[in-house]
Specification:
About 5% of the residues lie in helices and about 35% in strands. With about 240 residues, it is mostly beta strands. It has a 6-stranded antiparallel barrel. The protein has a 5-stranded mixed β-sheet with strand order 8-9-2-1-14, with no helix packed on it. The chain has a two-stranded antiparallel ribbon with strand order 10-13. A hairpin with a 7-residue loop joins strand 5 and strand 6.
């Protein structure tokens, strides 16, 4: 089942390479991925997730739309073979991904003050992590969206750090570090159910928020800039040190 989902998702990603003309201004060397790794450090019982780009990681950020509807989101994304339940979601179909994102129009990390100014709702542009479940979605040009659910569905479980939206999304609060060509995040083992034997890939993408059109997802993928493996086969494994 996981392999069939990956194949469907790759077909959707491939279609984005010719889509979303308005996304071209963000297609710089800053989103061209050249390397990625997840390293398990046994001394600190954590995994270190890192993406390296041709340019400066995180330097390119979205231009504000001035409102929530249509708000742009840029992301460096690690699709994984981890299960949604490993990070606190209820069991559901889709690909669990770690998305490092920037979006100036809104803040979806109400528990965290990333710019340390004692205001918790003004740091959306600062790169920060989300766990998301991605699934195929033909309603958007990119063919993918963050999986949604009905607010009345009592069977859905989200981590307590979720931002309060009817999507499989969490705001776990891990610090994101950008340095020259690198963007990385450190995740304690217990926050991923002590899983250290999983596979992953690395993707950079443009996403957009929708709050008005019922025929579109709340958060869809509209452009994929780079896929490290080229085929989203999730070929990379966790290394230990």
């Amino acid at each position: 089942m996981k392999n069939s989902i990956i194949i469907i998702v790759f077909m959707a990603l491939s279609s984005t390479l010719m889509a979303c003309d308005e996304c071209k201004k963000y297609n710089t060397d800053d989103v061209q991925i050249v390397k990625a790794s997840v390293i398990h450090d046994t001394n600190i019982k954590s995994t270190i997730w890192e993406i390296n780009v041709k340019g400066s990681a995180g330097k390119t950020t979205p231009v504000a739309a001035g409102q929530l509807h249509g708000a742009p989101v840029l992301g460096y994304v690690f699709p994984t073979t981890l299960k949604p339940t490993d990070v606190g979601f209820s069991d559901t179909q889709g690909i669990l991904a770690l998305a490092l994102t920037s979006h100036p129009d809104f803040d979806d990390t109400p528990l965290w003050d990333e710019n340390n100014d004692s205001t918790y709702d003004n740091d959306g542009i600062i790169w920060h992590p989300h766990w998301v479940v991605l699934h195929k979605d033909d309603r958007v040009e990119g063919g993918l969206s963050v999986k949604q659910f009905r607010k009345t569905d009592s069977s859905v479980k989200l981590p307590p750090t979720n931002p309060g939206m009817p999507m499989y999304m969490d705001s776990p609060g891990f610090q994101v570090i950008t340095n020259k060509t690198s963007i990385k995040v450190v995740i304690p083992d217990y926050r991923i159910n002590n899983q250290t034997n999983f596979k992953f890939d690395a993707v950079s993408a443009f996403m957009q928020v929708n709050t008005e059109n019922k025929d579109k997802p709340m958060l869809g993928v509209y452009k994929v800039y780079s896929v490290l493996s080229t085929d989203l086969s999730l070929p990379y494994t966790v290394q230990s040190k």
